[in-house]
Amino acid sequence: MNDTHKELLKKRKEQKKKKERIYTPDEVFYIFEKTLNGWKTIKTFNTYIQNNPQSNLTKEWVEKIALGNAKLFPSDLPEEKYNQYVELRQKVYDYHIISKQLKNVKEND
């Protein structure tokens, strides 16, 4: 495959993912920040829905996003905001790794 074909496939995949997702970049940032503050996913969901009843988020999606499983593309955000998203996402991953390790240590004591 040549490079233009690969780029075309990449763009199609990105468009499909954007069309199917039910969350907005602002919702992702909100959930990431609350996760890093130690909020449980149900508290995050309930608080967000109370403040934004028109949102399409479900509890299941909040749980997925809280684990860092929310893909935003560079074309979704300005470059500075996208870089912030990448940093936050990595912090969420690290937060869950550390939490898991602490839980394992407590169980072994």
Largest sheet: none
Distance between the terminal alpha carbons, to the nearest Å? Answer: 55 Å
Radius of gyration: 17 Å
- Shape type: globular
Strand runs, count: 0
Derived structural class: mainly alpha
- Mean model confidence by pLDDT: 89
Essential attributes:
109 residues; mainly alpha; 72% helix
Write the layout of secondary structure elements.
Layout: H1 3-20, H2 25-36, H3 41-51, H4 59-66, H5 79-108
Helix pairs in contact: 2-3, 2-5, 3-4
In short:
With 109 residues, the protein is mainly α. Helix content is 72%, strand content 0%.
Written account of the structure:
The N and C termini lie far apart (55 Å). Helix 2 packs across helix 3. This protein has helices at residues 3-20, 25-36, 41-51, 59-66, 79-108. It is globular. The mean pLDDT is 89. The chain has five helices and no strands. The protein has one domain (22-108). By secondary structure, it is an all-alpha fold. Helices cover 72% and strands 0% of the residues.
